[in-house]
From TrEMBL:
GO molecular function: ATP binding; glycerol kinase activity; rhamnulokinase activity
Cellular compartments per GO CC: cytosol
A GO biological-process term: rhamnose catabolic process
Lineage summary: Bacteria, Pseudomonadati, Bacteroidota, Bacteroidia, Bacteroidales
Domain Carbohydrate kinase FGGY N-terminal: 6-246
Xref: CDD domains: ASKHA_NBD_FGGY_RhaB-like (cd07771)
Keywords tagged on the record: ATP-binding, Disulfide bond, Kinase, Nucleotide-binding, Rhamnose metabolism, Transferase
Entry-linked PANTHER family: L-RHAMNULOKINASE, SUGAR KINASE
Domain Carbohydrate kinase FGGY C-terminal per the UniProt entry, residue ranges: 258-457
Name recorded for this polypeptide: Rhamnulokinase
UniProt xrefs under Pfam families: FGGY_C, FGGY_N
Family in the record: Belongs to the FGGY kinase family.
Amino acid sequence: MNNSKYFFSVDLGATSGRTIIGRIEDDKFELEEITRFPNNLIIQGGHYYWDIYALYFEIIKGLKEVAHRHLDIVSIGIDTWGVDFVMIGDDNAILRNPRAYRDPITFQAMDDYLHNIISQKEVYDVTGIQFLNFNSLFQLYAMRKENNSALKHAKKILFVPDALSWMLTGQEVCEYTIASTSQLLNPRTKQLDDRLLASVGLDHSKFGRMVMPGTQIGVLTDEVQQLTGLGAVPVIAVAGHDTGSAVAAVPAKNEQFAYLSSGTWSLMGIETKDPIISSLSYERNFTNEGGIEGTTRFLKNICGMWLYERCRLEWPDEVRQLSHPELQGQAMQVEPFRSLINPDDQCFAAPQSMIGAIQQYCRDTHQPVPETPAEICRCIFDSLALRYKQVFQWLQEFSSSSPNTQHPSPINVLHIIGGGSLNKYLNQFTANSLGVNVLAGPQEGTAIGNIMLQAQAAGLVKDIWEMRRIIANSIDIVTYHPQNKAEWDVAYEKYLKVTNQ
C-alpha cells in the first residue's frame, strides 16, 4: 500500500482479534492486516472473564505500528462480539475485568427471570430478541442476585466495543447495534427499555448516550496520543456488533436479498426498515438486531459448521490430517440424503460426543446410521443446506407479508459472507436446496464493513448502496447456480418428515 489515507479497524472475536487498515481508491478498497492476537478467556474463582486491558494493549500496539510506518490514519473503528459489558466506577476506573458470556452464572438465570420477573412473551414483544441464557439482561439479573460488587458500584455500564472506545477517547456512548444484542433495547423506539432496565435495578443514566453507526465518538486522548505517536485521530462508532459490520459488507445490488453469515454459527436474515415482532416470529425464534442506517437485521441463528468442527475433533489422527477439501471431497462420493438431522435440535448444542449425538438422532428417527467420517460429513452438509432452505422460505414469507420490510418483491438471491463463503461444496448444496443463485464473498466481511462505515463518516461514500457497489467492485464473488432441483425437492420433503416440521 502506498502512503495515502487509511482507516484503522479493530475486529475482536471471542477467541482472537485483529487490527486492519483499509483504504478506498479508484472506486475500490484494499485491506492489510497489521496485527493478530489471541483473546484469552480467564477462569478465576469459578467465573469467566475477558482481559479488557490486554485487548486495549493490543489496540495500542496496532496503533503504534501504523504510527511507526507513518501512515495517515483518518479514523478508528471497533467491532466485537455481542452482549458483554464493562463497568466503570465513580473514579472513572474499570471496576474489574468484564464477565464473559460463557460464565456459568447465567445457566439458570434466564429461566429464573422469565418465571419470576417478566414473562418470555412480554420480553419478546418489547425486544424482538431471541432467548439466549447469556443475553445481557440475564447476565445483569444474575449479577444482581449474587450482590455483585462491581455492578453495585458502577457509574456506567459500557458494552465491550464502547468500553474500548472510552479507553481511547474518554467518551461514554452506547452504540445502537451492540446495544441491540442485550435484550434490553426496544427496536421500535431504538432506546433501552425502562421496564426491562428497572427489572434489573438500572436506569438510563447507567449507560452512555445512544449513538448510531457512523457517529464520531471523540478523538484519541492526550495519553493515547503520547502512547502511540499519533495525533487527535477520531474514533467512529461503526456497527459495534461484528455481525452488524459484516452485514454492512454484503455486496448486494438491490434490496431483494437474504444473507448468510457463515462460520461456526450461521446467521441467516434480511434487512428490514422496522422490526418484525409477531406471534409467528416469536414461535420461530427470529431475532431483531440493530443494523446500519436505522435498519433492523431480522435473522435466525442456525447451528452451522459447529457440527462438523466438533466431529473433526473426535475423528482419528489420520482423518484430522486430511485437508478440509480432501475430507469433504470424500463426503461427496457418499450416497446423498441417506441420513438427515435437524442441525438446531437441542441434542447438538453441547453433547459429550457430536458423532454419538448424530448417530443417536439417526437411530431415533429410524434412518441409516452414518459411521464413516465421509458419511457423517455428508449428513451434516445435506442437513445444513436443507435447514437453510427452511429458514430461507420463512424469510421469504416474512418479507412478502410484512409492511415493514424493504422488499416489494420476494427475495431471490442469497449472499454468503464470512469464512463459510469459501466452502464450495456447502455453497453449491445451498444453491441446489434453495433454488436460487448463491453469491459467495467477501470472506473478510466484518473488517470491510467496519472500514466502509468509517469511510461513510469521512464523506468518502454516500450510503450503504455505494459501499456495497465498491465492495462488489473490489472482490471476486463466486456464483453458485442451483442444480438438481427435483432431487433436492424430494430430499426437503424427507427432511421435514424426519425432523417433524
